[in-house]
Amino acid sequence: RGVFITDQNVEMSFRDLAKVSSLGFLNAPRDMDGALRRIPLWVEFRGKVYPSLSLKLIMDYYGVSPKNVEFLEKSRLVLKSSQGVIEIPVTEDGFFWINFRSGIENVKGASFPQILKKEVNFAKNIVLVGLTGTGITDVAPTPLSANTPLVLAHVNTIQNILGRDYLRMMP
Q: For the whole prediction, is pTM greater than 0.70?
């Protein structure tokens, strides 16, 4: 196990939900210039380690339990599933550099009314619900745009891991 971000200001907004399911966190600190380029895959809180929403969805998708996740010294997070081993490059403190490839125009989406009318089939898909409309405040500058909906940070992280499409930092 490596060094992880610790957060003493975590709020558990869905305590009842956490009792019957597993949750992931959404926090993604910005770089010094205010841009979002990386996301922590784990955070330590009160002696326990929690995965990010992106990593938790990947773990669920591949059927990986927390005991089959390992942080190796060479800045790799390893997931051991029945389908094989997935090695994810991370920084020494557990950050994943997001390879932003998909903007909102490249992501299959659905409106809330379409979902309510059951016009969309979500079978065998990883589904994220997020704000993407004009004028929303859940945005940040990223390599894609000055106002990227933050749900796209998780979309790109998940796509990167599923496709093994990783950014690698030059030494």
A: yes
